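Data availability (excerpt). All sequences and predicted token strings are deposited with the supplementary files. A representative entry, Cytochrome c oxidase subunit 3, is shown inline so that the format can be inspected without opening the archive.
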Amino acid sequence: MTVAEDSAEDHGGHHLPAVEDWPQGFGEASWWPFITAAGAAGIYLGAALFVLSMAEEPLVSSMVAGATTVGSVGLFLVGLYGWLYHAFVVNFWEGGTDRHSDRTLRFAMLLFLVTEVATFGAGFVYYFFIRGGAVWSADLLPHGGVTGPLVFVNTVILIISSITLHYSHVALRKNDRQRYINLLAATLLLGIVFIGGQVYEYYEFIVHEGYTIAEGAYASAFYGLTGLHGLHVSMGAVLLGIVFVRSLYGQYSSDRHTSVSTVSMYWHFVDVVWVFLVVVLYVGTAVF
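Structure token line:
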């Protein structure tokens, strides 16, 4: 029996891609991350089509833009479910990682975050170009500006969530399980509150002020960057939720906490990105 056949039996009969070439310590081989990425890319394609459909001579209809967005969201959710299921449920749910795998997974997360820096960097470069170009005008901003109290409250919430997550991880390494779970639950709750705040901000801009992504160069940068960040925070909240459920089952200890470490790295990253985003995209419009 080949390695691929043996792996197919271990995973309910479904064949995993390039199993025999899959590097040790990276979990199971899977196409789900690529499906998830395709869905996420499609969401931004749908947003771009929506902008094109709002032109005086639209290149595409709003129906095409809507269908693309809805289909991409569905593909993203399906891919995310499959990815998380195979990463956290099938076999790996019950298993741990050895010391080599722990280092490898941490390094893999670090590489992933480097690609995320490039992703957000592209958005910020676009914003800097329009901010310093002739196209920039104060008329591009929504009525009343963007630096309301909500953004600062949300920033404090997200920073506190990073602090609670840090001390939650510290408690786990000290085998203080109850404190670990309590602080992890607080982090998850703060993350959900932050997402709710972002949804409310969008509601105020779009419904009450009629300020949509098609309102101009700043609007496209604003919704593009905050939407991308919101998508990452939502992903982080899902990961925190999975870690929290696994914690309730007692699957982490001071010697076994790889998932907690990698999810913490991801959460701290999105927090830092948000602070930079607030300084540049929110405060920067009022100061400069």
